[in-house]
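[job 0412] stage=fold_complex status=start
inputs:
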Amino acid sequence: MKVKVVVMPKATVLDPQGNVVRDAMRHLGMPEVRSVRIGKYMEIDVDGKNGELESRLHGLCRDLLSNPVIEDYELQKDESAKRKRNK
Amino acid sequence: MKFAVIQFPGSNCDQDCVAAINSLDGLRAEYVWHKETSLDDFDAIVLPGGFAYGDYLRCGAIARFSPIMQAVISDAGAGKLVLGTCNGFQVLCEAGLLPGALVRNRSLRFVCDMVTTRVEVDDSPFTHGCSKGMLLRLPVAHGEGCFFADAETLHELNANRQVILRYADSRGRIVSEANPNGSVENVAGICNRERNVFGLMPHPDRASDLRLDSADGTKIFRSMVQTISGNRATSERAKQVA
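[job 0412] stage=fold_complex status=done
writing structure:
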């Protein structure tokens, strides 16, 4: 099973990196940009694909891959890989 | 009296800590590799600065799972003094021994500077050798030292007097110009509710000799020594009474 994990800073946490990129985009001719938030994206390949595995992955998302004090995470199962196999 | 200085792969202030501690009378520091599992032989624990595990993922995120951290957590629970400087502070927050988190400096720059901190609490085990409002000049060197806590946590930290040090200007005023990293309310160091775990971004270990421009860091180590000897005397008296 392939999963994608997206970790984003919480809305209440200042993201100075995102602000710098937002300003750069505005300077480069896109004043419409309202905000940029920068997070992390991880691709994870694991053996197996049952619900128990998924709940363990969620556990590690909370304990290791993100810090719940400052970040939220989203775990996405990679459906595109499945579709390719089905063709 | 024996202090443990934990060495993670990537620690780089472990020698500074050992040298600073060994320079004080009656105090001895020993390195403890992060793969060890017991800290029973030690009176206090120091988590030094550096870049444990290369700061990969988040500062301290991987170090908190090192085998020694189980001993740090259980000894902290039993009341042993634990000091985390810089990267050590980040590890303590990741491990949940201290509330809040340390994020990228607001400037996005690594800061390496001498700063002034104001002692906010003079009866903690780490600062009772100081008076309230005393200014300590300590160096900082970090890229992720911006202390963050949500409003509720911050309220609790203030209500329980857990903020031990704040960044201040040379006259002791808590102003934004004195804040090197954008920490909320100029927080430079906090303790846990039980007051035996203390984390700070500045380096007392690098300010323990006047030849290094400041010896204010020794006040923190000396306070720890006083606390430990005081506790020992109390427990011996209790034994005699029993």
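[job 0412] summary: The first helix of chain B runs from residue 14 to 22.
[job 0412] exit 0
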